[in-house]
């Protein structure tokens, strides 16, 4: 399982809550609309089934084919009107859904925008702090890396006077003996 190296801040939690609230309300509106469409479809299917049974009984009871055709033709117009009414109901449901989704988005966008800005500010602040800590660590590492090389040239300079003193002693000794 992956673990976060950074703690979840209150700004991130607030933004997640705002997003959750928005998606929850949005989903509720979509499911309400789906339920209304399903209810309309069930109503339409039951109505079509009842009319089909009634029309079939009337056609079967017809005395001749011309009467059966006139019964079937007489039901075509009411069926077309019912299809138009179904289409109108479906259009009304879609329009109400669009208005409800727009209202939901309108009510949640300010809070979501505010929490997103707060989260961005928090991330920016934390990134600046981390960049400063990284810069300080790099500076310390550079100082630690350059410190031995700065001491190394000083040691030969300190060794030179000692060598000169040793040389002067050794050069003074042979003269003293002569």
Automatic annotation (TrEMBL):
Residues 123-178 are annotated as: Disordered. It comes from the Bacteria. Residues 123-135 have a biased composition (Basic and acidic residues). Residues 139-165 have a biased composition (Low complexity). Residues 17-109 form the Phasin domain. Signal peptide: none annotated. Residues 168-178 have a biased composition (Polar residues). InterPro entries: Phasin, Phasin_subfam-1. NCBIfam families: phasin. This is Phasin family protein. It comes from Noviherbaspirillum humi.
């Amino acid at each position: 399982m992956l673990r976060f190296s950074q703690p979840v801040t209150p700004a991130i939690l607030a933004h997640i809550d705002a997003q959750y609230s928005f998606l929850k309300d949005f989903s509720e509106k979509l499911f309400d609309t789906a339920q209304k469409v399903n209810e309309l479809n069930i109503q339409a299917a039951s109505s079509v089934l009842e009319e089909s049974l009634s029309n079939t009984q009337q056609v079967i009871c017809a005395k001749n084919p011309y009467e059966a055709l006139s019964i079937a033709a007489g039901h075509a117009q009411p069926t077309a009107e019912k299809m138009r009414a179904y289409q109108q109901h479906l259009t009304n449901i879609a329009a109400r859904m669009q208005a409800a989704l727009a209202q939901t988005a309108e009510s949640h966008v300010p809070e979501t925008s505010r929490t997103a800005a707060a989260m961005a500010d928090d991330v920016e602040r934390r990134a600046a702090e981390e960049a400063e800590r990284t810069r300080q660590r790099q500076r310390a590492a550079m100082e630690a890396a350059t410190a031995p090389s700065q001491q190394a040239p000083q040691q030969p300079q300190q060794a030179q006077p000692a060598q000169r003193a040793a040389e002067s002693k050794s050069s003074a000794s042979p003269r003293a003996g002569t």
